[in-house]
Amino acid sequence: MTDYLARLDAVIEAEIAPNAIHIDADGRYPRDNIAALKAAGLFGLVSSTEVGGEGQGPRAATEVVGRIAQHCSSTAMIVCMHYAATALLEATGDDEVRRAIASNQHVTTLAFSEKGSRSHFWAPLSTATVDGDSVVLDANKSWVTGAGEADSYVWSSLPAAAEGASTLWLVPSSTEGLKIDAPFDGLGLRGNASSPVSAAGAAIPLGNRLGADGGGFDLMIGTVLPWFNLMNASMSVGLMDSAVGATAAHLTSTRLEHLDQTLADNPVNLLHLAKARAQADAAEAFLERAVTAVEGGAEDAVLRVLEVKAIAADAAISVTDTCMRVCGGSAFRKESGVERKFRDARAAAVMAPTSDVLYDFIGKAICGLPLFG
Questions:
Q1: pLDDT per position as a tens digit, 176-196
Q2: What is the CATH number of the domain that holds 86?
Q3: d(CA 103, CA 62)
Q4: Residue range of the domain that includes 143
Q5: DSSP 8-state secondary structure symbol assigned to residue 114
Q6: How many Å apart are CA 77 and CA 68, to the nearest integer?
């Protein structure tokens, strides 16, 4: 086992696993989990060694996020967004913020999706107006994980002056003019503080631009999307692994006393469980293929990145549905954890880029058509 996974497992045992049911019940942000992950050095995992980080890549990120998701998807989502934003900042950010992240003192997140363009995250409608050495942001962001909790947002807007689809900015969460529009109260991922954020005349230094004016689209698609899709798929895989494990434990420990049998003695239950395990394993195998393609710069890497999130999301919906069915009424009890995973698994399919959008991209890619346009 690698050192970072050993550190992670210690945090999972001490904080993340025991806190999960309470985070879901209360919908509260998992501050104790985040503090423990910081103390274990895991928020600087993908930061460059040049700035004091561990220099790990998307494989390590997917391992960490997937393992956390087995216990608390809310915490996994926060870490996923942090790593995706960090990958972008490693390519475009200044050394000050990079060092802060590497030293586990700074949590960042993505602020792409908007009310006007919804899951089409690559098409912001918000504006950025240059005013001397500052830029003034006006926006209605629809979903920002860790809203009001993260230290900064990697923020998209229309270009300030250049041609192009978008420009990216580093926006401190303390910026005057930012407002969290509503507390998050969702079906699943209830502790990830994924709320709408608006900006009204929010001024930041012009030097907080990430990359070129008008160059946001290429950074979103070329840098952020591969990391995000791989980690999101690993969340789905983690949820499936946990749900199948909980279901197997239920079947082998629950008895029909009048028949002197466990539920595992019923071949129908075993058939459903076996199919669920096979689906989960197939998604995990494809995730491994996609990670390898990205690491190696394979010719089919873009297609695999598009496929992996949709494949894993669909599998997670099916597998957790099966687990609820096999566990019967017991699964409806919150202490089982199965119904929480059933709810959490629904998020990936509707999280930008949604499964339907991804399948549209996949079809276009197969036919050699432009993905956007």
A1: 999 999 889 999 999 999 999
A2: 1.10.540.10
A3: 20
A4: 111-212
A5: B
A6: 9
